[in-house]
């Protein structure tokens, strides 16, 4: 009980301070390297302050956690430790994907990216703006990935720790699948509109090609990487992996959403066919 | 030493170097100075810089006397700035950069980029950028400010000005609620 409270404290403080430091570093780098941002000195001062306060707090707590993990197996296999590691990696990977989307969108001049470009930056500035975030987030993600790999080598992930990993793997797989599916639907719609666009009324079916290509370029690798990882775990020696309820929930969830979408859209199409057959406007 | 420990040390060294670089860049950044006043951009720049330096006498000099609500004195100008503190960004830290000027005959529209630091939220830099316009007019060979989206009290364009005299002339009936406007546009 005592060690659980201690773990919560160590990893909660580590997570909060690390996120604060990470985003202060990103903001500081952007302010220093993008002249167009022209930040007030107080902005720089605040970012430096967050780093100077947050970094020692993170290091003190994280190294404390590392010392404890190095001392006992129980600490290293703790579910809370895995929750921190995978949660932190997810907190870096999510914004990484968002910045990669905006970076590719900027390079492809996707309308959706240009419409909401941060601070009205030029294309060159926007590339640097997103690259800096990608750099910082990838370095921190990679560090935590190596810690996870070390921990997994020392103590196989089982029980709660395996559940946390499954949440991470299947969560990003689901996000990638959703983005890929949406992009595919929109691209198919775009192709159809190239042949029958003249009969379509209204703009609700408008598809922005570069936006959908960007979406596909982010969603597809995300889905493939994480789904392949999930499949490797399934094909591995662990029986628990094959019997995982979370995996079944993911699969049945995907089938359910797909089936519901097919039924809803087929109904709408059929209703339209009958409406036309009955000569209704 | 484990490779992850070396990696962490590398990250920390990188962060320390970044902080040092930020200090050096910020401290060596030249302070903004007044520019030549023969262009609209120079006048707009000097007006904004004078306001930031609270040199109200100088800022007042850039305002067009043809404005209907032209403040009668530097003191009145300073009072208007205080009263419209939000418009003049007195409570926030800003940096301003004059970007471009569009000249048409004797009028010019200058675009200004304003970077503001609003708050102190831990996970958000709370930085925002606004691009606004300052309108200038050529008067007796000098560019004077006649309108602006910010750093300009709307009532300077009003025939009644920002404030009426404390004691209105006895023969003029005093309209209710229109004598003293503090801090913004009346509803």
Structure write-up:
The complex is a heterodimer of chains A (281) and B (187). Chain A has 281 residues and is mainly alpha-helical. Chain A is 84% helix and 0% strand. Chain A is built from ten helices and no strands. Chain B is an alpha+beta fold and 187 residues long. A four-stranded antiparallel sheet of chain B has the order 1-2-3-4, with helices on one face. Chain B starts with a helix and ends in a 39-residue tail after the last strand. The interface between A and B is medium-sized, with 38 and 32 residues.
Radius of gyration of chain B: 22 Å
Distance between the termini of chain A: 69 Å
- Helix and strand content put the structural class of chain B at alpha+beta
* Proportion of beta-strand residues of chain A: under 5%
Q: Report the order of strands and helices of chain B.
A: HHHHEEEE
Order of helices and strands of chain A: HHHHHHHHHH
DSSP strand count of chain A: 0
How far from one another are the termini of chain B? 69 Å
Compute the number of strand runs of chain B. 4
Oligomer: heterodimer
What strand line-up does the widest sheet of chain B have?
A: 1-2-3-4
Q: How much beta of chain B, percentage-wise?
A: 15-25%
Average pLDDT figure of chain B: 83
**Structural class by sheet pairing and helices of chain A:** mainly alpha
Largest interface: chains, residues each: A-B, 38 and 32 residues
Residue stretches of chain A low in confidence (pLDDT < 50, at least 5 long) are none
Helical segment tally of chain B?
4
Overall outline of chain B: elongated
Topology:
The complex is a heterodimer of chains A (281) and B (187).
Chain A: H1 2-33, H2 41-71, H3 73-76, H4 79-108, H5 111-115, H6 123-154, H7 160-196, H8 209-235, H9 239-242, H10 245-277
Helix pairs in contact in A: 1-2, 1-4, 1-6, 4-6, 4-7, 4-8, 7-8, 7-10
Chain B: H1 3-28, H2 40-52, H3 56-61, H4 74-83, E1 93-104, E2 107-117, E3 127-139, E4 142-148
Antiparallel strand pairs in B: 1-2, 2-3, 3-4
């Amino acid at each position: 009980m005592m060690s659980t409270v201690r773990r919560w404290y160590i990893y909660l403080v580590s997570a909060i301070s690390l996120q604060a430091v990470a985003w202060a570093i990103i903001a500081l780098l952007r302010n220093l390297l993008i002249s167009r941002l022209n930040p007030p000195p107080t902005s720089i001062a605040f970012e430096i302050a967050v780093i100077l306060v947050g970094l020692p707090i993170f290091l003190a707590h994280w190294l404390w956690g590392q010392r404890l993990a190095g001392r006992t197996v129980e600490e290293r296999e703790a579910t809370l430790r895995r929750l921190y590691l995978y949660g932190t990696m997810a907190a870096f990977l999510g914004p990484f994907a968002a910045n990669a989307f905006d970076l590719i969108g900027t390079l492809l001049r996707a309308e959706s990216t240009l419409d909401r470009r941060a601070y009205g930056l030029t294309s060159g500035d926007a590339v640097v703006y997103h690259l800096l975030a990608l750099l910082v987030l990838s370095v921190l993600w990679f560090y935590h990935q190596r810690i996870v790999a070390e921990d997994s080598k020392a103590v196989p992930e089982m029980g709660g720790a395996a559940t946390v990993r499954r949440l991470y793997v299947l969560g990003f797989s689901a996000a990638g699948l959703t983005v890929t599916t949406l992009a595919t639907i929109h691209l198919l719609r775009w192709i159809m509109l190239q042949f029958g666009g003249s009969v379509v009324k209204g703009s609700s079916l408008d598809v922005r090609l570069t936006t959908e290509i960007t979406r596909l370029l982010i969603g597809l690798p995300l889905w493939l990487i994480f789904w392949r990882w999930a499949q490797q775990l399934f094909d591995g020696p662990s029986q628990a992996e094959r019997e995982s309820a979370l995996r079944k929930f993911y699969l049945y969830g995907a089938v359910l959403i797909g089936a519901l979408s097919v039924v809803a859209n087929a109904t709408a199409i059929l209703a339209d066919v009958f409406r036309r057959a009955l000569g209704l406007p | 030493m484990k490779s992850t420990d070396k990696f962490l040390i590398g990250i920390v060294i990188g962060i320390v170097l970044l902080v040092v670089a930020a200090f050096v860049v910020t401290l060596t950044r030249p302070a903004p100075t007044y520019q030549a006043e023969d262009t609209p951009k120079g006048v707009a720049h000097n007006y904004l810089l004078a306001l930031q330096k609270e040199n109200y006498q100088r800022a007042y000099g850039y305002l067009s006397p043809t404005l209907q609500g032209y403040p009668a004195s530097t003191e009145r100008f300073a009072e208007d700035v205080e009263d419209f503190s939000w418009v003049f960004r007195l409570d926030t830290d800003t940096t301003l950069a004059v970007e471009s000027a569009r000249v048409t005959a004797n009028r010019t529209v200058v675009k200004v980029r304003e970077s503001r630091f609003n708050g102190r939220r831990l996970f958000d830099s709370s930085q925002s950028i606004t691009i606004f316009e300052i309108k200038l007019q050529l008067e007796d060979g000098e560019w004077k400010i006649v309108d602006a989206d910010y750093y300009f009290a709307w009532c300077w364009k009003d025939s009644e000005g920002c404030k009426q005299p404390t004691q209105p002339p006895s023969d003029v009936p005093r309209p209710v609620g229109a004598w003293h406007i503090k801090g913004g546009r009346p509803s």
